[in-house]
Specification:
Elements (H helix, E strand, L loop, with lengths): L5 E2 L2 H4 L4 H8 L3 E5 L4 E13 L27 E6 L3 E8 L6 E12 L1 H8 L12 H8 L17 E5 L9 E4 L16 E4 L9
Antiparallel strand pairs: 1-7, 2-3, 2-7, 3-6, 3-9, 4-5, 5-6, 8-9
The protein binds a DNA duplex (13 and 13 nucleotides) through β4, β5 and α4.
DNA sequence: CGAATGATCGGCT
DNA sequence: GCCGATCATTCGA
């Protein structure tokens, strides 16, 4: 790995403020390599989820089940689950062990190996629907829920996050309520969705 | 064990 | 803009 492309350290993920981790992930690169070619995208949209007080979080009230178990692991693990029976949604676990915080990655700007992404998406040409949206970006990068629970700081991990020196300035970041969490009562209003203003790859919502 | 419910997407009108 | 797909997970009986 070159000096410019370096994996984020554990300390990036174990910070206690999941909102800071969410904003900090904008401009970082999500990379996968399952042995059939590396694919990568620059993160341009992310949402924070935080137990125990956030009703939109799967671990609300610190609910501990087989599915939510990995959210309680220390920052840097991957939490991936199936949504609407079809879509695999990728989250970055944050906080120290015992804190069930996670960041849903909602959109990527394609950065590496778009031919393989197009093939996985069964698309002919590059367009926003290639990676704009949490379900489609997982498909483009080959991420499925069988990888939930992996530690992305493990050197053997096929999924990881790196810095490539393409930072996002604070003033480029906008916030809004999270998408699709209308059921979460007062938590639905919290502006915990962060995205790069004006970026063409941000999902419509 | 049965029933309800999604942190969505894409096709059709 | 609306609507159906499709299934793991969760909770209550």
């Amino acid at each position: 790995m070159s000096e410019k492309n370096r994996r984020l350290p554990r300390s990036f993920f174990t910070r206690s403020d999941v909102l800071e981790v969410s904003r900090g992930l904008l401009g970082k690169y999500l990379v996968t390599d399952f042995g059939q070619g590396r694919t990568a995208g620059r993160i341009v949209e992310a949402e924070a989820y935080r137990a125990p007080d956030d009703k939109a979080c799967h671990a609300y009230g610190n609910r501990f089940t087989d599915r939510t178990r990995v959210m309680f692991a220390r920052g840097g693990h991957a939490y991936i689950y199936l949504c609407y029976g079809i879509h695999h949604l990728f989250n970055v676990v944050s906080g120290v062990e015992g804190m069930a915080h996670a960041v849903l990655i909602r959109a990527l700007e394609p950065a590496e190996n778009t031919p393989l992404m197009l093939q996985r998406r069964r698309m002919q040409r590059v367009a926003p629907r290639l990676t704009a949206g949490p379900g489609v970006l997982s498909q483009a990068l080959g991420i499925t829920r069988k990888y939930t629970g992996i530690d992305m700081l493990d050197s053997q991990s096929p999924i990881w996050i790196e810095e490539r020196n393409a930072p996002v300035a604070e003033e480029e970041i906008a916030a809004s309520p999270r998408i699709g969490v209308g059921y979460a009562e007062e938590c639905a209003e919290w502006e915990w969705r962060f995205f790069v203003k004006g970026n063409a790859w941000v999902s419509g919502g």
